[in-house]
Structure formats: C-alpha cells, structure tokens
Design brief:
alpha/beta; Rossmann fold; elongated; UDP-glucose/GDP-mannose dehydrogenase dimerisation domain-containing protein
C-alpha cells in the first residue's frame, strides 16, 4: 500500500485533497497546522507515491519543493500550481524523482465542481526518470477520481497555456470591456445597448464575447503576468490601472 500527500491546503489544494482522498489514501500538509486533516495512525509509515504541490509560486518555490522532497521522500511529484515557464524543467534537472506538471483550471468559489468538469492536462519532461510509471499512476488516480485526463507533449507547453491561453486571455477580454465602457461613457451612450449590436454575431460566430467591464482584482490574472517575461502582455495591467482611475471619477 502507498499514500499520496497534498501540500498546500488552500483554494486548489483542499479540493484536490477532497477529490483524491475518496479513492486513494491521501493526507494533507500545510504550514498552517490547523488546516491539516487528521490522518489514520495505521497509514503513518506508508510509502509516499506522489507529493501533490499546490502552493503559490514564489522565488523560493524550487527550493521549497526540493526541501519537501527530502522531507517526505516521495516516488514522484505532481505540480498543480500556476508556475513560471521552465520551472518543471529546472526542477527535474535537480531531482531524481519524476516531476509531472498538471495545470489547474477552475474558479476558486466552485473549484471542486470545476475540477470534475474540466479535463486535467498533464505533461512530463522526456528526461524524467520512471516517466512511464509516473504518467500511468497519475492517469489512473485521475480516472478513479472521475476526472478526465490528457497528456500533452511537454511541461513548457502547459506552463505557457495556463498563463497565455487562460488567465491572460481572460484579462485581455476584460480589458476590451473596460476600454469599450470608457468609450461609451466618453460619448454618453449606454454600454449594454452599444454591445447589443454584437449579440447576433456572438450567437452565430462565437467570436464577439461581451464581458462585464469590471476592475481585475484577485490573485490570478494580474499576478500571473509576473510569471512570464513578455512585454506584450504588460498592457493588460496598464489598461486595468487606467480603468481603476476611470472608476474613481
């Protein structure tokens, strides 16, 4: 018998713990001991299969993971956090256990149901040791947890996909709503009436989405921009700050 440990029991980690613990022996670990669920004494000495990493990315992320590997001695690592591109590659170079990257999709307030809704993408480096074992075991865990899975070519593809095609794209859509709201106000026209012109185009073509023109807050869209060194995406934060000033008028 083996067990898994979910590290970081926040908005991503706790739903993961709830999902995995239903079908596999799973324990939780967090720097806040109050968040750690009670575990059975009989499972204390079980070997650890995977460490599921769901802690926020920081400058200490890689060193924290290496420290956790030394502490728990797992057979493999699965990173569920949003991370800086090339992080998986850099960690794999330093670790003797396989490192899987599996980006998380979903809205925090309904994360558990969203995890069940979306296919869980994952990837592993070609140089990873025990690569086939790690992918097989992780795919099996997802299957028994009723989560669809899809393995893609490389971690860097998935690291970029999470930032470029998910959170930043969402931010850009909101940016356009912000800009169109400011333009509507400038000419003293109704925002919703103006956008109604695109309703049928959106209905038939699906390429004119109307977003709510709100300020982008939270800890996904804007913070994730800092993970990628791409000046072309800086405009998302600039327009958001411009809209913040507009709201204060």
């Amino acid at each position: 018998m083996q067990k898994d440990i979910v590290v970081g029991l926040g908005e991503i980690g706790f739903p993961l713990y709830k999902l995995f613990s239903k079908s596999f022996i799973t324990e939780g670990f967090d720097i806040n001991s109050k968040l750690i669920p009670k575990s059975l004494k009989k499972n204390k000495l079980l070997p650890i299969r995977f460490l599921h990493i769901s802690i926020p990315f920081s400058k200490k992320f890689n060193s924290d993971i290496i420290r956790l590997v030394k502490k728990f001695e797992p057979k493999g690592i699965v990173i569920h956090s949003t991370i800086k591109p090339t992080t998986t590659f850099n960690l794999q170079k330093k670790l003797s256990v396989p490192v899987i990257y599996s980006a998380t999709r979903g809205v925090h307030k309904r994360m558990l149901s969203d995890m069940k809704r979306y296919t869980k993408f994952f990837a592993i480096e070609d140089m990873a040791p025990n690569k086939k074992w790690a992918c097989k075991e992780f795919a099996k865990l997802l299957k028994i947890s009723n989560i669809k899975s899809k393995q893609i070519s490389s971690p860097i593809t998935l690291e970029l996909a999470k930032i470029v095609c998910d959170t930043s794209y969402y931010g850009w859509l909101i940016n356009y709503a912000q800009m169109s709201k400011m333009i509507a106000e400038k000419y003293d026209v109704d925002y919703d009436e103006m956008w109604s012109f695109s309703d049928e185009i959106q209905k038939f073509l699906g390429n004119r989405p109307k977003m709510f023109p709100g300020f982008i807050g939270g800890h996904c869209v804007i913070p994730n921009l800092q993970l990628i060194d791409e000046h072309s995406l800086d405009s998302i934060n600039k327009i958001n700050n411009m809209f913040k000033k507009f709201l204060k008028k």
